[in-house]
Amino acid sequence: AQKVTQAQTEISVVEKEDVTLDCVYETRDTTYYLFWYKQPPSGELVFLIRRNSFDEQNEISGRYSWNFQKSTSSFNFTITASQVVDSAVYFCALSTNFGNEKLTFGTGTRLTIIP
Amino acid sequence: DADVTQTPRNRITKTGKRIMLECSQTKGHDRMYWYRQDPGLGLQLIYYSFDVKDINKGEISDGYSVSRQAQAKFSLSLESAIPNQTALYFCATRRDNTDTQYFGPGTRLTVL
After folding, report:
1. Which chain A residues touch B106 with a CB distance below 8 Å?
2. Would you call B98 and A97 a contact, using CB atoms and an 8 Å cutoff?
């Protein structure tokens, strides 16, 4: 069975602070894919990043960075110098490669950036 | 133009009514999905389709049906809507099972 845990239900930080969103996953498969999606107040789901299980290299995209650690089954997301536009619900998700069409989502972390 | 579109974006209906939610995509993907999102929860898979002739139930298919009219179109129907089907519904597509799922803008459905 697959599971994604986002233990932080809500986080509030003051603008320009850095913030890290935690994601812990469980799967028995050796090949899998991890994702982060952003859901702004308007409701759509915006794809942010995809990582496969063979690539543990961390990634940086502008103010966003992701830390993938197989040893702890974690795929954490850090926003540097947060902005009000970063306020949203962020979902971590997992899919595996063996006939499983389901994208398993965590319950999301609501991030509020205080101006 | 958006790659994945959903209509309607918002709908209010009454218990017992039949309702159809539509999804269209221009990404050329074979695989399409319907999910529902309830407040404070992640997304749950309702149905998915590999192509026009291949439709499969997800984890919460009871009370729903789907139709894959063409590669680009995948509709979700509620034959007799009930209040606990009030949710945000998302359509998604992807190229293959190693690809990212790309989501439509969502349809907010309220059943009174």
Report:
1. 43-45
2. yes
Contact (CB<8Å) A45/B97: no
B82 burial type by CB count under 10 A (0-12 exposed, 13-18 middle, 19+ buried):
exposed
Residue A55: what pLDDT? 86
Min Cα separation B109/chain A (Å): 13
Burial of B30 per CB tally in 10 Å (0-12, 13-18, 19+): middle
pLDDT digits (tens, 9 = 90+) for A1-58: 789 999 999 999 999 999 999 999 999 988 899 999 999 999 899 999 999 898 888 8
Q: DSSP assignment, residue A62?
A: T
> Residue A105 and residue B102: Cβ atoms within 8 Å?
no
Partners of residue A100 in chain B, C-beta under 8 Å: 97
Region of residue A16 (left: phi > 0; alpha: psi -120 to 50; beta: else) = left
